[in-house]
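User: Show me sequence and structure for the first protein, then do the same for the second.

Assistant: Starting with the first protein.
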Amino acid sequence: MFHESKGKYTPQAHVGIPEGTYEDEHGRNGFYGRVSHLYHKNPPTGWSKIDGKCRPQAFNIIELAQNKDPWQPGFLLENRDVKIGFMKPKENSTCPYFFRNADGDNVYFIHKGEGTIETDFGPLKYSRGDYLVIPKGTTIRFSTGSSEQKYLVVESRAEVNLPEKGLLGKHALFDIANLETPKPEAHEDKGTFELKIKRQNEMTTVTYPFHPLDVVGWKGDLSVVKINIKDFRPVGSHRYHLAPSVHSTFVGSGFVVCSFVPRPFETDSEATRVPFYHRNIDCDEVIFYHDGDFFSRKNMGAGMVTFHPFGIHHGPHPKAAETAKSKTMTNEYAVMVDTYQPLSPTSDATKCEWVDYWQTWKE
């Protein structure tokens, strides 16, 4: 452990950046590890050409073709720890089978639509902006409402938990009292009921002569939970632009899910108001744009996904800093997934890629 300072720099990161320079955060372990700040004469994203796979990518997953089974997600990015995809269930419908994921936990983020998810623990109604966290091995079934349905899906090999809040205190970000759990409603129906179990990415169908959701009660600290992104209360600092990791909402083995919601801009005249340049060398970064005005990204609409692999810089688009000066608050809702293992785009991802995204920093 050591700390050195050489040449032209500012003693406080993201504040009072020397005129004519561009601050670049070179950090380890997803903003949690050792870090240095480098002060460039040119913006680190000022490239003229990129050849190879280590480049910023964007995907319009709203345009992704419907999966053969609308009740299962199509995945766009994946590694050994996590898969990130999208699901478009039929509106005003009930899944014709019950489903159990034996490969991992699922987090469903409801981008559009509403409905009821039936579970072993009981039913939960959900709507736009809700996170649904489904523990591994839980039996579920979706029944959708009459509007269009579009869900972001994160599948985790390991258990999904809440982040440690440390100095912020246990009521920061969101009080756990905001987490809604279901109350059981035991079914007594007889007939033929199919349960599909996904294990090692293959489906097994189990048929029962009774309704699989026949639980009359439950107790414990493992359950399906729901919380809306609007219940997330962001941490801010009027004198310092905080790292995105401060918006952590859920954590898994090898990844973290963060929620970006409206917050006041920094009011210190010397403080950076937009995300700082960084190469975040230990994490791939994925952001799903849900709603609002995405001030740091040009031409980015709701339902799009950006993918910034570690190793290459990313940061705000040109003129984002000037735009931010005239505003008092951000006005965006987005979900970020940072992963510690490299993500690989699937064949489905290439079908909805915005291939010129990497050039948007040249404008």
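Switching to the second protein now.
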Amino acid sequence: MTYIIAEPCVDLKDGACVDVCPVDCIYTKNDDNMFYINPDKCIDCAACEPVCPVTAIFAEDDTPSEWEKYIDLNYEYFGLSR
């Protein structure tokens, strides 16, 4: 399992999650409007979840149904599918 970044991150890009990630699996580019977690690198440590100021990070299986499309967006960002 991996963690997912969902809609509350859009246009915020706070970066607190990046600072605490022990495996550097959270990415963004200048043109992106949010951060993404690489599911192949995420070690499911949950360090990112409590530091998110807008509660945008969820365990994949716990992602709220209204933001379920963000699961696929996170995978697709890295050229992966679930």
